[in-house]
Amino acid sequence: MSDHLNIHRKLENLSKEANEAKARWDEHVSAPYSRAYEAAHKKFQSVLNEDKKSKQQALDLAFLALSLCGGALLTSAFATTARVALADAMLNYICKRNLTRVFKTVAFIENSAATQFVLGEVWNMLKTRGMASAKRDIETKFNSPAKLLSDEPWRVDSALKEFTEQAKNSVKAMVGHVASNSKLSIEDRGRIYKGLINSPFFAPPDKSPYKEEILAQEIEFTMYLNLIIDSDFVQKRKGGRTSIGVSPSAADYPKNIGFGRGYHQKIGYNRIGQTIIDRINVLHKSLYKAESKFIDSGYLGETMNKEIILRAESLLAKIGDRSDIYRQKYAPLIVDKRVQKIS
Question: Is 304 buried (19+), middle (13-18) or exposed (0-12) by CB count in 10 A?
Answer without folding.
Answer: middle
